[in-house]
Design a protein that fits this description.
The structure is a single chain. The protein has 68 residues and is mainly α. It has one domain (1-37, 48-68). Helix content is 37%, strand content 6%. It has three helices and two strands, in the order E-E-H-H-H. Strands 1-2 form a two-stranded antiparallel sheet. Strand 1 (9-10) and strand 2 (13-14) form a beta hairpin.
Length: 68
């Protein structure tokens, strides 16, 4: 089954990586609350890309897009 995957970036950098550097401190709690639906897999240290299915992209747009 082929499935489209989506990635949100800012100037070529993934939004979560950019957010760690650029997100104002007063928005951190809001973003953390809005991303509770998004489970983080237990992965070894490494360099990963954040990809979303179409369903995940729609949920991201509803919960985190404006904050990022």
């Amino acid at each position: 089954m082929n499935q489209n995957l989506y990635r949100f970036t800012t100037n070529g950098e993934g939004v979560f990586s950019a957010g760690k550097r650029l997100l104002p401190k007063e928005l951190i709690d809001e973003v953390n609350e809005n991303r509770r639906w998004l489970t983080k897999p237990d992965l070894p240290e490494g360099n990963y890309q954040f990809l979303l299915t179409e369903k995940g992209m729609k949920k991201y747009e509803q919960t985190l897009f404006l904050s990022h």
